[in-house]
UniProtKB/TrEMBL annotation:
Keywords: Magnesium, Metal-binding
Alphabetical list of Gene3D superfamilies matching this protein: Enolase-like C-terminal domain, Enolase-like, N-terminal domain
An example Gene Ontology molecular-function term: magnesium ion binding
The protein, known as: Mandelate racemase/muconate lactonizing enzyme family protein
């Protein structure tokens, strides 16, 4: 395939205002669209942010990545990804650079699958799977009453699991809230908690031990992702399973965690991780190491990618869903989803829905 041209668009979608959920207050979701024209098929990709960095991502694509790929011949999107990654090494091996590469990579996988006339999951070598879903949101500052109301909403949709934030000013507050949620759910529904890197090693170990009686499916991001040994030590010292991955920006991080025994669950996000190509590599590492797999955001895309996992445990359904902006929102049936059968990834945004939020 040869990349003939590409173009970008930028949108700022309003979100219901939320208080600090671990990354600061969130009231906007940014979307950066990438449309790629190749000699065999066109492809679409996007990157998202929680309100910051979108313009920089678009600028990287327009002024750096475009120059690196227009006219490029490639046998597979993975080859194109490696080419772009090497061209971007000096200006960043992560962060916004990974977001920018991800949007292009998504578009190239879309075009690649369309050229073969197959859904994305088949293009990556997988078979369609029925994937259980769980609900999550930005709820750290919610009262316990409001938190339980949010969880009732997940249950009403038939979701098979629930995730809540932890990282309140005191651990006792977290434990009280987790106890209330577990009591509200009963033991038949999986419960996960997300610390968003709120703790140091000692705090994380104390929290993990105090959370053990609640039989959590996982404790997510207790430490910063750079602290691989800290996660490995924590995993050895507690029975509470650990989950990481949404804040990784390259395949190397997944491989490092697999080697160190630092996680029980890998959460892939094809945007933050740096592309579908990186998510594929992450799941290969998970499969080889016997690590469970889940997802972060990008619901429709992750439904394809998780089909590659040998041990897919959950697909995340986030409160910040893009359903209102999509031509064909993902359908949940009895708490499960399947990937689209359209050629490519099957994701298309409604022009009339996003156009009012176009920005410079």
């Amino acid at each position: 395939m040869r990349i003939m041209s590409l173009s970008t668009d930028y949108f700022r979608l309003p979100l219901p205002p939320s208080e600090d959920g671990g990354h600061g207050a969130i009231d906007t979701e940014e979307l950066v669209f990438v449309n790629v024209h190749t000699d065999l098929a066109d492809g679409f990709g996007y990157a998202y942010t929680i309100g910051k960095g979108g313009r920089a991502i678009r600028s990287l694509i327009d002024h750096e990545i475009a120059d690196a790929v227009i006219g490029l011949d490639f046998a597979s999107p993975e080859d194109a990804w490696r080419h772009v990654w090497r061209r971007m090494l000096y200006i960043g091996r992560g962060g916004l650079t990974s977001f920018a590469i991800a949007a292009l990579d998504m578009a190239l996988w879309d075009a690649y699958a369309k050229a073969d006339g197959v859904p994305l999951y088949r293009a990556i070598g997988a078979q369609s799977k029925e994937l259980p879903t769980y609900g999550s949101g930005v709820d750290l500052q919610k009262s316990t009453e409001d938190l339980l109301e949010q969880i009732d909403g997940y249950k009403a949709r038939g979701l098979r699991g629930v995730k809540m934030k932890v990282g309140r000013p005191t651990l006792s507050e977290d434990i009280e809230r987790v106890a209330a949620v577990r009591d509200h759910l009963g033991t038949a529904v999986d419960l996960m908690v997300d610390a968003n890197m709120a703790w140091d090693r000692d705090e994380a170990l104390e929290a993990a031990r105090q959370l053990e009686p609640f039989e959590l499916r996982w404790l997510e991001e207790p430490l910063t992702p750079e602290d691989i040994e800290g996660h490995a030590h924590l995993r050895r010292e507690t029975s509470t399973p650990l989950s990481v991955g949404e804040s990784f920006h390259s395949p190397a991080e997944f491989h490092a965690y697999a080697r160190a025994g630092g996680s029980d669950v890998f959460q892939v996000d094809p945007v933050t991780n740096g592309g579908v190509t990186v998510a594929i590599e992450a799941l290969r590492a998970a499969n080889a190491a016997g690590i469970d797999a889940s997802s972060h955001y990008a619901d429709e895309l992750n439904a394809h990618i998780l089909c590659l996992a040998e041990r897919p445990v959950f697909l995340e359904k986030h409160a910040f869903a893009l359903d209102a902006y999509l031509e064909d929102p993902q359908e949940i049936v009895d708490g499960f989803v399947r990937p689209s059968e359209r050629p490519g990834h099957g994701i298309a945004f409604l022009a009339e829905a996003v156009e009012p939020f176009r920005a410079d």
